[in-house]
Amino acid sequence: APRAGAPAKRPDGERVATAARLLAEARKPVVLAGGGSRGASAELRALAERLSAPVVTTLNGKGVLDERHPLAIGSSLRLAAGRARAQEADVLLVVGSKLGEAELWVDRLAARGTVIRIDLLDSQIAKNQDADLGIVADARAALAAILDALEQHPVDAAEAQARSEEAEASVAETIARVRAESNELSPQNTALAEHIAAALPERAVVATDSSQIAYWGLLNTLRVSEPNSTPYMATYATLGYGLPAAIGARIAAPDRPAFVVVGDGALMFSMQEFITVVEQRLDVTVVVVDNGGYAEIKQNEADAGIAPVGVDLVQPDWAAVATAFGGTGRRAADAQQLAAAVEAAVAEGGLQLIHIDQAAYAYDSGEARR
To answer: Which family does the entry's similarity section mention (predicted)?
Structure first.
């Protein structure tokens, strides 16, 4: 049976009242939600809607607000367009995040407005970003208390509607800028990620790791409806995490389709776990995006004037490998084949592998999911 957690840490009432006043007076509030907010989805949504506040998340907080909600920017802090919304807010509410470099891709967020931080640990309140007001408490309890305190700050209905429409329009503009920035950084990974996202079934758990298809593509484009949908290890940037994470996700949430989307070099770190999927009779679909090796390291070598060393990998027949382990291997060369392969994999169950050769893939063959 699950172990009982520690009692929720209650927020300080005076600090809650101050937070509510600052947020009520804000003209451009933004909520930045980290992994510590995952147990407070309902409260976070209610607060965002009450304030007409756009929500940007870390990768660990991805989905805490349904990413199809009109106030959801998504998990785009790594991109300048997403990061700018947090930096430019006149009041920024940070919930359960240490704002680490791995989430930001810059040394510090450097928010320019008033910063309110909610965290279970006092040691995190000023971590990587000074706070004007810190609330040491459970995220759910703190957000609920702030919502209650906002009752003392009523808003005219017409003004609230106008602010909501303005905020939603600004979110749509930010999402478009994020997409353009992602496409500029890596057009192939962005296009392929959009095809993968469009093919995935609803409520899929999609594990990944430090593969280019993840951080340059899927984590920017995939819009998830709930937290705990994209197991990822942003802090450690490891290879080999994705497949074991997908196995764990399938065991923990058997009602949700389990996928792993990784590069070929990353999959070689843990492909022995194919036999675990078969042995435990699990349904896990592996999408291996084959760019021929360690493309990021190859680029780093080129940037340093080093000829490629140990980065161009000899590839197995990936579909045949899955079959040899007792699963089913497929190949997809365009968006239509990819969608059909995903549908067949989910229907058939067991160990499924879909191999995508990036050098041969037709990137202009499909439409992105909206």
So the answer is: Belongs to the TPP enzyme family.
